[in-house]
Every structure is written in structure tokens, then in C-alpha cells.
Backbone:
């Protein structure tokens, strides 16, 4: 595809040394005039430069495709999100293949065991690395990583990709699909420099919505969603336990919702405490001392005194699934395509696999001379990822519903289920591989797991 000269100007003359994000903050009024009157051409526009969007962009390095990322937040704001995630082996392997894991690994914490239990029962299912298969020689089941660590490493990597341009803070105000291209109107969101940055038009063969659960791309192209709001909210916080966490992640199911503790550093843990909305609000409003007391009541005293560190955040739990992942010239990845209950830490990991799968399909299509925005190509991605995501979304939904109640037959079934999991190795191994994202068709970036 022929690029107008402005594309290289964006990359070379107006991009500050440290990062390409300020590419649109052009101070030169001549350049603004050019922008106003020029239609920029890219093969692909990724709307949303979060962890999933950035992973996709990096996975397209060297593909011969020109990529523009449009991100609503400035780099520093985007990185500052105080979230942390359980990272499955599937994601760390993808980032390893993309050359970013080496920068991430020293800053994350391993979990070497997962203890799963019903809060109203004493039985605990203990998952160990060898349960994933002795042949893999693994020493951990996964990692816990802070958002800032993951996004900084990915953005540093994006910065080194010659085929990627970055545009922020900006949003796509309009998406029009026009036969063999998509026309996007991009608006600056920089309140201080808005008059210097008039809206401009980008044409691309494909636009990808990586813009999160409230995806505007999805809305602009009229893709519907199905789902529900749970009766629960998730309270997340960082705590400092008195005793060492020993790299153990805990998921304990209570009738009010799952409660997870994940080791996030040598000395600190992250909690994800699911509770009915009103209860979550009450916990959020407690003073620090009363919160620590409530926390100890919920978790117990295995790790001694649990001290709250920093702020608490509460999120309403939702299940949202896009009815379609693709339309001609449009594809959705990550939370734009699906978002689920945080139990089992699936959401981001699914998005990373979406990104790797889509990159693989687009690279292959490009090599074979196919139109990357055609429905025929994009449907390969939908067929691959939608089924796998439905399984994972259903798994989180069933897990939450099975355990978040006191209906006697269900209590009996789940207690039996947990005991069977401990007793019958293949149930344990299959469940663990599923949770770690190692079952089902793997992207080429993710080496296949030898079967047991
Ligand atoms: C309490 C809680 C705990 C969780 N724990 C885990 C866990 O342990 N493991 C796990 O795998 N997942 C977890 N998740 C899910 C995880 O947070 C999401 O799945 C993940 O953040 C989705 O990433 P994303 O890049 O698709 O979307 P987002 O992180 O939402 O990123 C979207 C990006 O798009 C940008 N954007 C939005 N709109 C526009 C626009 N119009 N134009 C341009 N840019 C735009 C945003 O600024 C943002 O940078 C948890 C979720 C919650 C609520």
C-alpha cells in the first residue's frame, strides 16, 4: 500500500526521542495543515494500546504490515493503572517468543502452588508445577505481574518496531467501513493542545478494536454483545502478610463469592475479594484497621496479621461476550471481544492469546497475498478464538455460580468435585492445563505442550 510522505514524517521528524506517543502533538502549523488535508494510509489500525493491543502490535513486527496504534491515554497514565494480574504460562510463553519476557520476568513473582478450596469445607486441592506434566520440568505454575511492568515492557518493545506508529492521547471518533478499506476519524484527546491537533482521517485495510470492555469500535460498527452483570463486585487491594507467602496462590470459594490471594512481590500479596455489591462497598469504606480485621476473618491466620498497603479498588463483575468478533475490515481482541468474572484470572490471558492468534492469521494471509481485512481471513480468527473463549467464559461463570451459593445438592456436588480432583490425576491435570491456557489450539508463538 502506498504511504503518503506524512507517515514517515510522523515517525521521523515529529516524534520525540523517548516515545512515539506524542506523534500527533505537532507544534508545526504546516504539519497540522498537512494532517488536516491528508488521508493517512496504514494496513492496520489498532484502537487501544493496552496490554492486548500492544501485544498484537509487537506480534506483527516484521510482517510487512504498517500499523498505527491509537490510544486514548498518555503513556504515563496508561502505565500507572494500579492493577495486577495472574499471568498464565500461555501468556509468558507468548511474550517470551516476542522478546519481552526477559524485561518482565525480573519484576514479577512466581506462584509455585495453587490452593483451591471451598470456604465452608476443610478439603484443599493443591496444584503443583509437576501436575502440569513432569516432562515440562516447570518450577512454577505462573506469575503475578503488575500492569505497569507488563505495559512498560511492551511499549518499550513497540518503540523499537519500525512498522508501528503510535498516536496518543487520541480516540477514533468514527469508523466507516467502505468496501476495501475502513475510514477512521481520529481526534486528539489532549485538552491542552486540542486546537493544535485537528481531527484527521486514516484509511486502513483493517481496524482492530483492542479498546477494552466498553469498546467504541465494537459500538461504532454495530456488533452486539450478550452477557450479564453479576450480583457481585470485586475488591482488589495490596496487603503485606506478617508471614512469608511461600509463593502460594489461594483461591477460596465462599457463598458470597471467590476470594483470592496472589503473591505479587517477595513481601506483598494482591487480594481479589468478591462479595455482593453492598458488602463490597462496606468493605471499601472500612477504615484500614477494621478492614484488616475483616480480612483476617475472611482468610484466616495462616499468614499472620494481614496489613493493607495503599488503596482499595472495587469493580462490578460482568460477563460480556461479543456476538461476532469480526466484520469485513474489523476484528475485536481482548476485553473488546469478551470480559469475564475475575475468578481464575482468565481475562487478560485470553486477550493475549487472541492477539497471538490474530497476528499469526494476518501474517500468514499477508505472505499468501490475501486481503488481511477480508471476511474470509478474519473468520479464521473468529473460528479459532471464539470457541476457546466461550469455554473459558463458561468455566468462570459456572465456577462462580457453583460455589457462590448454599443450595445443598450443589454443595454436595462441588465438595465431591474437589475431592475427585485431588484423587484422580487426569481430572487435576486437565483442569490445571485448561486454567493455564495450555489446552486447545495454540498460536505458533506458543510452543505446544508435550502430552502426558
Ligand atoms: C478485579 C479484576 C481482576 C482481574 N484479574 C485478572 C487476572 O488476574 N488475570 C487476568 O488475565 N485478567 C484479570 N482481569 C481481567 C483483565 O483486567 C482484563 O481482561 C484486561 O485488562 C483486558 O485488557 P485489554 O488490553 O483487552 O483492555 P484494557 O486493559 O481495557 O485496555 C484497553 C485500552 O484501550 C484504550 N482505549 C479505550 N477506549 C479507547 C478509544 N475509544 N480510543 C483509543 N483507545 C481507547 C484504553 O485507554 C486502554 O489502554 C481482572 C479484571 C478485574 C476487574
Residues:
Amino acid at each position: 500500500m502506498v504511504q503518503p510522505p506524512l507517515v514517515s514524517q510522523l515517525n521521523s521528524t515529529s516524534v520525540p526521542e523517548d516515545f512515539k506517543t506524542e506523534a500527533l502533538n505537532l507544534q508545526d502549523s504546516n504539519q497540522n495543515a498537512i494532517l488536516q488535508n491528508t488521508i493517512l494510509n496504514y494496513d492496520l489500525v489498532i484502537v487501544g494500546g493496552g496490554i492486548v493491543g500492544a501485544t498484537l502490535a509487537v506480534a506483527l513486527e516484521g510482517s510487512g504490515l504498517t500499523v498505527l496504534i491509537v490510544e486514548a491515554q498518555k503513556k504515563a497514565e496508561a502505565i500507572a493503572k494500579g492493577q495486577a494480574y495472574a499471568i498464565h504460562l500461555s501468556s509468558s510463553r507468548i511474550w517470551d517468543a516476542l522478546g519481552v519476557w526477559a524485561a518482565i520476568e525480573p519484576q514479577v513473582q512466581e506462584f509455585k502452588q495453587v490452593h483451591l478450596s471451598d470456604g465452608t469445607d476443610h478439603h484443599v486441592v493443591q496444584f503443583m508445577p509437576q501436575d502440569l506434566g513432569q516432562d515440562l520440568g516447570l518450577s512454577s505454575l505462573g506469575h503475578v505481574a503488575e500492569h505497569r511492568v507488563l505495559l512498560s515492557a511492551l511499549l518499550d518493545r513497540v518503540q523499537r518496531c519500525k512498522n508501528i506508529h503510535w498516536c496518543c492521547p487520541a480516540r477514533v471518533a468514527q469508523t466507516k467501513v467502505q468496501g476495501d478499506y475502513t475510514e477512521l476519524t481520529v481526534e486528539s484527546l489532549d485538552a491542552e493542545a486540542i486546537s493544535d491537533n485537528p481531527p484527521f482521517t486514516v484509511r486502513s485495510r483493517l481496524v482492530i478494536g483492542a479498546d477494552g470492555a466498553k469498546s467504541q469500535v465494537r459500538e461504532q460498527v454495530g456488533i452486539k454483545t450478550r452477557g450479564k452483570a453479576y450480583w457481585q463486585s470485586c475488591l482488589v487491594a495490596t496487603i503485606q502478610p506478617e508471614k512469608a507467602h511461600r509463593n502460594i496462590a489461594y483461591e477460596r470459594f465462599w457463598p458470597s463469592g471467590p476470594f483470592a490471594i496472589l503473591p505479587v512481590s517477595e513481601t506483598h500479596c494482591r487480594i481479589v475479594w468478591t462479595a455482593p455489591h453492598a458488602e463490597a462497598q462496606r468493605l471499601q469504606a472500612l477504615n484500614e484497621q477494621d478492614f484488616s480485621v475483616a480480612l483476617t476473618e475472611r482468610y484466616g491466620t495462616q499468614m499472620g496479621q494481614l496489613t493493607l498497603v495503599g488503596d482499595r479498588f472495587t469493580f462490578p463483575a460482568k460477563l460480556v461476550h461479543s456476538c461476532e468478533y469480526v466484520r469485513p475490515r474489523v476484528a475485536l481482541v481482548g476485553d473488546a471481544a469478551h470480559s469475564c468474572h475475575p475468578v481464575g484470572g482468565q481475562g487478560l490471558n485470553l486477550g493475549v492469546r487472541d492477539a497471538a492468534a490474530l497476528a499469526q492469521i494476518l501474517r500468514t494471509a499477508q505472505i499468501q497475498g490475501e486481503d488481511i481485512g477480508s471476511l474470509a481471513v478474519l473468520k479464521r480468527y473468529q473460528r479459532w478464538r471464539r470457541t476457546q473463549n466461550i469455554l473459558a467464559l463458561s468455566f468462570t461463570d459456572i465456577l462462580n455460580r457453583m460455589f457462590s451459593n448454599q443450595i445443598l445438592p450443589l454443595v454436595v456436588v462441588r465438595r465431591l468435585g474437589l475431592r475427585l480432583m485431588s484423587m484422580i490425576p487426569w481430572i487435576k491435570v486437565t483442569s490445571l492445563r485448561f486454567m493455564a491456557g495450555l489446552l486447545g489450539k495454540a498460536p505458533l508463538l506458543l510452543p505446544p505442550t508435550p502430552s502426558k
